[in-house]
Amino acid sequence: MNLASLDGVIGPSEEALIPITDDGLQRGDGVFEVSRLYKGVPFAHDEHIVRMRRGADNLRLEADFDALEAETEALLEAAGPVDGQIRVMLTRGGRRILTIEALPTVPPVARVATVLYQPTILLNGIKSLSYASNMLATRLAKERGFDEALFVTPEGKVLEGATWTFFWVSGGQLYTPPLEDNILDSITRRLVFEGSSAVERSCTREDLAQADEAFIASSAREVQPISAIDDHEMPGTPGPVTRAAHEALLQRIEREVGAAAAVAAS
Ligand SMILES: Cc1ncc(COP(=O)(O)O)c(C=O)c1O
Fold this sequence. Notes:
By secondary structure, the chain is an alpha+beta fold. It has seven helices and 16 strands. It has two domains: about 5-100, 2-Layer Sandwich (D-amino Acid Aminotransferase, Chain A, domain 1), CATH 3.30.470.10; about 110-250, D-amino Acid Aminotransferase, Chain A, domain 2, CATH 3.20.10. Strands 7, 8, 9, 10, 11, 12, 13, 14, 15 and 16 form a ten-stranded mixed sheet that branches. It has a six-stranded antiparallel sheet with strand order 2-1-6-5-3-4. The longest helix is centred in the C-terminal third of the chain and has 26 residues, at about 240-265.
Protein backbone atom coordinates (compact mmCIF):
# COMPACT_ATOMS: atom_id res chain seq x y z
CA MET A 1 0.00 0.00 0.00
CA ASN A 2 2.76 2.52 0.90
CA LEU A 3 3.93 3.20 -2.62
CA ALA A 4 5.43 6.45 -3.93
CA SER A 5 6.38 8.06 -7.20
CA LEU A 6 9.09 10.74 -6.93
CA ASP A 7 9.68 12.55 -10.23
CA GLY A 8 8.45 9.36 -11.94
CA VAL A 9 10.54 6.84 -9.99
CA ILE A 10 8.24 4.33 -8.27
CA GLY A 11 9.18 2.54 -5.04
CA PRO A 12 8.25 2.09 -1.37
CA SER A 13 7.26 5.44 0.21
CA GLU A 14 9.79 5.02 3.05
CA GLU A 15 12.64 4.90 0.53
CA ALA A 16 11.76 7.99 -1.54
CA LEU A 17 14.09 10.90 -0.65
CA ILE A 18 14.11 14.61 -1.45
CA PRO A 19 17.01 17.04 -0.86
CA ILE A 20 16.85 18.89 2.47
CA THR A 21 17.27 22.14 0.53
CA ASP A 22 13.79 21.81 -1.06
CA ASP A 23 11.68 24.80 0.06
CA GLY A 24 8.68 22.48 0.06
CA LEU A 25 10.27 20.98 3.18
CA GLN A 26 12.02 24.06 4.58
CA ARG A 27 9.13 26.50 4.20
CA GLY A 28 6.03 24.48 3.33
CA ASP A 29 6.21 26.16 -0.08
CA GLY A 30 4.21 24.01 -2.46
CA VAL A 31 0.75 22.56 -3.05
CA PHE A 32 -0.93 19.22 -2.41
CA GLU A 33 -4.14 17.30 -3.09
CA VAL A 34 -5.64 14.10 -1.74
CA SER A 35 -8.13 12.02 -3.75
CA ARG A 36 -9.91 8.92 -2.57
CA LEU A 37 -9.22 5.58 -4.30
CA TYR A 38 -12.03 3.07 -4.68
CA LYS A 39 -10.59 -0.28 -5.80
CA GLY A 40 -7.76 1.63 -7.45
CA VAL A 41 -10.06 4.14 -9.20
CA PRO A 42 -9.39 7.76 -8.13
CA PHE A 43 -12.59 9.67 -7.46
CA ALA A 44 -13.00 13.25 -8.83
CA HIS A 45 -9.25 13.36 -9.43
CA ASP A 46 -9.54 15.77 -12.37
CA GLU A 47 -11.32 18.28 -10.11
CA HIS A 48 -8.51 17.97 -7.57
CA ILE A 49 -5.91 18.63 -10.28
CA VAL A 50 -7.85 21.68 -11.52
CA ARG A 51 -7.74 23.06 -7.96
CA MET A 52 -4.06 22.19 -7.74
CA ARG A 53 -3.30 24.07 -10.96
CA ARG A 54 -5.13 27.10 -9.59
CA GLY A 55 -3.20 26.89 -6.30
CA ALA A 56 0.13 26.46 -8.10
CA ASP A 57 -0.64 29.51 -10.31
CA ASN A 58 -1.48 31.58 -7.25
CA LEU A 59 1.77 30.50 -5.56
CA ARG A 60 3.71 31.30 -8.77
CA LEU A 61 4.80 27.65 -8.76
CA GLU A 62 5.59 26.10 -12.12
CA ALA A 63 5.05 22.38 -12.62
CA ASP A 64 4.93 19.85 -15.45
CA PHE A 65 1.28 18.70 -15.25
CA ASP A 66 1.64 16.41 -18.28
CA ALA A 67 4.42 14.52 -16.53
CA LEU A 68 2.34 14.47 -13.36
CA GLU A 69 -0.58 12.89 -15.21
CA ALA A 70 1.60 10.17 -16.76
CA GLU A 71 3.24 9.47 -13.40
CA THR A 72 -0.16 9.24 -11.70
CA GLU A 73 -1.31 6.63 -14.21
CA ALA A 74 1.88 4.61 -13.75
CA LEU A 75 1.61 4.70 -9.96
CA LEU A 76 -2.06 3.69 -9.99
CA GLU A 77 -1.22 0.82 -12.29
CA ALA A 78 1.58 -0.32 -9.97
CA ALA A 79 -0.71 -0.05 -6.90
CA GLY A 80 -3.54 -2.13 -8.38
CA PRO A 81 -7.15 -2.20 -7.11
CA VAL A 82 -6.53 -0.73 -3.65
CA ASP A 83 -8.93 1.20 -1.41
CA GLY A 84 -7.17 4.19 0.11
CA GLN A 85 -6.06 7.59 -1.03
CA ILE A 86 -3.59 9.16 -3.44
CA ARG A 87 -1.66 12.23 -2.30
CA VAL A 88 -0.10 14.54 -4.88
CA MET A 89 2.52 17.14 -3.89
CA LEU A 90 4.39 19.77 -5.89
CA THR A 91 7.31 21.44 -4.13
CA ARG A 92 9.16 24.71 -4.71
CA GLY A 93 12.25 22.56 -5.24
CA GLY A 94 10.54 21.20 -8.38
CA ARG A 95 9.64 17.73 -7.07
CA ARG A 96 6.53 15.87 -8.18
CA ILE A 97 5.62 13.50 -5.36
CA LEU A 98 2.77 10.99 -5.40
CA THR A 99 1.98 8.57 -2.61
CA ILE A 100 -0.62 5.85 -2.20
CA GLU A 101 -1.74 5.65 1.41
CA ALA A 102 -4.20 3.86 3.66
CA LEU A 103 -7.21 5.93 4.70
CA PRO A 104 -6.88 7.76 8.01
CA THR A 105 -8.65 5.92 10.83
CA VAL A 106 -11.55 8.04 12.07
CA PRO A 107 -14.43 7.28 14.44
CA PRO A 108 -17.86 6.70 12.82
CA VAL A 109 -19.16 9.83 14.56
CA ALA A 110 -16.98 12.84 15.46
CA ARG A 111 -16.97 15.12 18.50
CA VAL A 112 -15.75 18.55 17.44
CA ALA A 113 -14.16 21.43 19.37
CA THR A 114 -14.04 25.02 18.12
CA VAL A 115 -10.52 26.46 17.80
CA LEU A 116 -9.71 30.14 17.15
CA TYR A 117 -8.27 30.66 13.69
CA GLN A 118 -7.57 33.57 11.37
CA PRO A 119 -7.32 32.73 7.63
CA THR A 120 -4.25 34.21 5.94
CA ILE A 121 -5.41 36.41 3.07
CA LEU A 122 -2.48 35.47 0.84
CA LEU A 123 -3.06 31.72 0.97
CA ASN A 124 -6.86 31.80 0.66
CA GLY A 125 -8.12 28.93 -1.48
CA ILE A 126 -4.63 27.48 -1.93
CA LYS A 127 -4.17 23.94 -0.62
CA SER A 128 -0.57 24.74 0.26
CA LEU A 129 1.93 22.50 2.03
CA SER A 130 1.83 24.98 4.98
CA TYR A 131 -0.60 22.96 7.13
CA ALA A 132 1.10 23.27 10.52
CA SER A 133 -1.72 25.45 11.93
CA ASN A 134 -4.34 22.93 10.75
CA MET A 135 -2.43 20.08 12.39
CA LEU A 136 -1.92 22.10 15.59
CA ALA A 137 -5.65 22.91 15.75
CA THR A 138 -6.48 19.20 15.61
CA ARG A 139 -3.95 18.48 18.35
CA LEU A 140 -5.47 21.23 20.54
CA ALA A 141 -8.96 19.75 20.02
CA LYS A 142 -7.66 16.30 20.99
CA GLU A 143 -6.01 17.71 24.12
CA ARG A 144 -9.51 18.85 25.13
CA GLY A 145 -10.91 15.34 24.58
CA PHE A 146 -12.46 15.93 21.12
CA ASP A 147 -11.76 14.27 17.77
CA GLU A 148 -11.60 17.28 15.47
CA ALA A 149 -11.06 21.05 15.31
CA LEU A 150 -13.57 23.47 13.80
CA PHE A 151 -12.09 26.87 12.91
CA VAL A 152 -13.81 29.99 14.27
CA THR A 153 -12.45 33.50 13.64
CA PRO A 154 -11.87 35.98 16.49
CA GLU A 155 -15.02 37.77 15.19
CA GLY A 156 -17.04 34.58 15.75
CA LYS A 157 -17.44 33.35 12.17
CA VAL A 158 -17.43 29.55 11.86
CA LEU A 159 -15.39 28.48 8.82
CA GLU A 160 -14.40 24.84 8.27
CA GLY A 161 -12.56 22.00 9.92
CA ALA A 162 -8.79 21.60 9.90
CA THR A 163 -9.04 19.16 6.96
CA TRP A 164 -12.75 19.18 6.11
CA THR A 165 -15.81 21.24 5.18
CA PHE A 166 -18.55 21.94 7.71
CA PHE A 167 -22.29 21.43 7.18
CA TRP A 168 -25.02 21.99 9.77
CA VAL A 169 -28.79 21.57 9.94
CA SER A 170 -31.31 23.89 11.54
CA GLY A 171 -35.09 23.51 11.25
CA GLY A 172 -34.64 20.76 8.65
CA GLN A 173 -32.53 23.00 6.35
CA LEU A 174 -28.95 22.06 5.45
CA TYR A 175 -26.40 24.91 5.51
CA THR A 176 -22.70 25.40 4.81
CA PRO A 177 -20.55 28.56 4.99
CA PRO A 178 -19.95 30.41 1.69
CA LEU A 179 -16.55 30.37 -0.06
CA GLU A 180 -16.37 34.15 0.51
CA ASP A 181 -15.80 33.38 4.20
CA ASN A 182 -12.33 32.22 3.12
CA ILE A 183 -12.75 28.47 3.21
CA LEU A 184 -11.33 25.92 0.80
CA ASP A 185 -13.36 25.26 -2.36
CA SER A 186 -13.86 21.63 -1.30
CA ILE A 187 -14.73 19.08 -3.99
CA THR A 188 -16.94 17.12 -1.56
CA ARG A 189 -18.72 20.35 -0.57
CA ARG A 190 -19.68 20.87 -4.22
CA LEU A 191 -20.92 17.28 -4.54
CA VAL A 192 -23.00 17.49 -1.36
CA PHE A 193 -24.52 20.69 -2.75
CA GLU A 194 -25.44 18.99 -6.00
CA GLY A 195 -27.03 16.06 -4.18
CA SER A 196 -29.04 18.04 -1.62
CA SER A 197 -30.93 21.28 -1.10
CA ALA A 198 -28.10 22.83 0.95
CA VAL A 199 -27.78 26.60 0.97
CA GLU A 200 -24.80 28.81 1.78
CA ARG A 201 -24.97 30.91 4.91
CA SER A 202 -22.30 32.34 7.18
CA CYS A 203 -22.24 30.45 10.45
CA THR A 204 -22.00 31.90 13.96
CA ARG A 205 -21.37 30.38 17.38
CA GLU A 206 -25.13 30.78 18.05
CA ASP A 207 -25.85 28.62 14.98
CA LEU A 208 -23.56 25.94 16.43
CA ALA A 209 -25.31 26.05 19.80
CA GLN A 210 -28.69 25.57 18.09
CA ALA A 211 -27.73 23.04 15.39
CA ASP A 212 -29.97 19.96 15.15
CA GLU A 213 -27.41 18.03 13.09
CA ALA A 214 -23.94 18.64 11.67
CA PHE A 215 -21.42 16.76 9.59
CA ILE A 216 -17.91 16.72 8.20
CA ALA A 217 -17.41 16.45 4.43
CA SER A 218 -14.11 15.65 2.71
CA SER A 219 -12.68 13.40 0.03
CA ALA A 220 -11.11 11.04 2.57
CA ARG A 221 -14.14 10.82 4.87
CA GLU A 222 -17.05 11.37 2.47
CA VAL A 223 -19.66 12.31 5.12
CA GLN A 224 -18.84 11.85 8.81
CA PRO A 225 -21.63 12.78 11.27
CA ILE A 226 -20.87 15.14 14.17
CA SER A 227 -22.45 14.27 17.53
CA ALA A 228 -21.18 17.21 19.60
CA ILE A 229 -19.72 20.68 19.07
CA ASP A 230 -18.04 21.93 22.26
CA ASP A 231 -20.70 21.40 24.97
CA HIS A 232 -23.61 21.20 22.52
CA GLU A 233 -24.63 17.52 22.24
CA MET A 234 -26.74 16.29 19.33
CA PRO A 235 -28.46 13.07 20.38
CA GLY A 236 -29.71 10.77 17.63
CA THR A 237 -26.67 11.36 15.39
CA PRO A 238 -26.74 10.76 12.45
CA GLY A 239 -30.00 12.61 11.87
CA PRO A 240 -32.17 12.31 8.74
CA VAL A 241 -30.65 15.21 6.76
CA THR A 242 -27.12 13.92 7.35
CA ARG A 243 -28.15 10.40 6.32
CA ALA A 244 -29.80 11.67 3.11
CA ALA A 245 -26.74 13.77 2.18
CA HIS A 246 -24.44 10.83 2.85
CA GLU A 247 -26.59 8.45 0.80
CA ALA A 248 -26.72 10.88 -2.16
CA LEU A 249 -22.93 11.26 -2.07
CA LEU A 250 -22.36 7.49 -1.92
CA GLN A 251 -24.65 6.98 -4.91
CA ARG A 252 -22.79 9.64 -6.89
CA ILE A 253 -19.44 8.01 -6.04
CA GLU A 254 -20.71 4.56 -6.98
CA ARG A 255 -22.03 5.83 -10.33
CA GLU A 256 -18.84 7.68 -11.27
CA VAL A 257 -16.40 5.05 -10.04
CA GLY A 258 -18.44 2.35 -11.83
CA ALA A 259 -18.42 4.35 -15.08
CA ALA A 260 -14.65 4.98 -14.83
CA ALA A 261 -13.96 1.29 -14.15
CA ALA A 262 -16.12 0.33 -17.18
CA VAL A 263 -14.17 2.72 -19.46
CA ALA A 264 -10.86 1.36 -18.14
CA ALA A 265 -11.97 -2.23 -18.83
CA SER A 266 -13.22 -1.53 -22.41
C1 LIG B 1 -9.05 22.98 5.10
C2 LIG B 1 -9.82 21.97 4.29
N1 LIG B 1 -11.13 22.17 4.04
C3 LIG B 1 -11.86 21.27 3.35
C4 LIG B 1 -11.29 20.10 2.86
C5 LIG B 1 -12.13 19.12 2.07
O1 LIG B 1 -11.79 19.24 0.72
P1 LIG B 1 -12.14 18.08 -0.33
O2 LIG B 1 -13.60 17.83 -0.25
O3 LIG B 1 -11.77 18.67 -1.64
O4 LIG B 1 -11.35 16.89 0.05
C6 LIG B 1 -9.94 19.87 3.07
C7 LIG B 1 -9.33 18.64 2.53
O5 LIG B 1 -8.19 18.32 2.78
C8 LIG B 1 -9.18 20.81 3.81
O6 LIG B 1 -7.88 20.61 4.05
